[in-house]
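Supplementary Text 2. Reproducibility record for the structural model of the 262-residue chain.

All settings were left at their defaults, and a single model was retained for analysis rather than an ensemble. We include the record here because the model underlies the residue-level annotations in Supplementary Table 4.
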Amino acid sequence: MTTSYEALLVDLLAEHDALAAVVAGLGPDQLLAATPADGWDVRDTLAHLAGFDEAATSALVDPDAFRAEVERVFAEGDDPIVAYTSRGRSMDPAAVVTWWRDAREALVAAAAAADPKIRVPWYGPAMSAMSFMTARLMETWAHGIDVLDAVGAPIVGSSRLRHVAHIGVGARRYSYGARGLEMPETPVAVVLSAPDATSWTWGDPDAPSRVEGSAVDFCLVVTQRRHLDDTSLTVVGDAAIEWMSIAQAFAGGPTDGRAPLT
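Retained model, structure tokens:
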């Protein structure tokens, strides 16, 4: 996949705006509606996004201070996910919406001012600015799915999903490594039907092992927002089947994902 840093930031802002349009229509009760994420409601989800968008802004504008904070977190055994969730729960739901709005606007502004060639520190290995901002887009989309599910809103695909799918494909080896497993060297092709009716392809489409289907379904599986059985993806070959059973596009320890609904 080839895209410019500027185009990526346009897509990131559009992904933010798409979720913001949904959140703007939610009342107090809906902001406290349970999401499929165990123990989390919509407010928790927005607090999570706000906290990590704030952290991402710090990593961009003051990387030395951010590295020092990460060292402190690891040394003291703190968990930033727990910290941001607790902070959100101490706030009125509407205030969390404002927090997330301000944090995402600051992140986009910081990213626009950053040199695309820099390496950005994070809680794991440093990333290129391109990879870093693509990961923020993926996080916004994935957690946005939790919000949509909580309030019964439909999932609408867009061309921005190509960023999410690209991370999902690239994270195949990580999905194994996070579980202490060796990834088989068998190539797996990914051929997806894009929302605009075009096709997105990674690898040789004639490979014996492959994943085919809608881009929305693929992104839902690799971000663990849907179980493979709840999608219409076609998965052929042992290597592809094994990968899709453990696919994980996001960093952190291995997680089992959602149980099948059907």
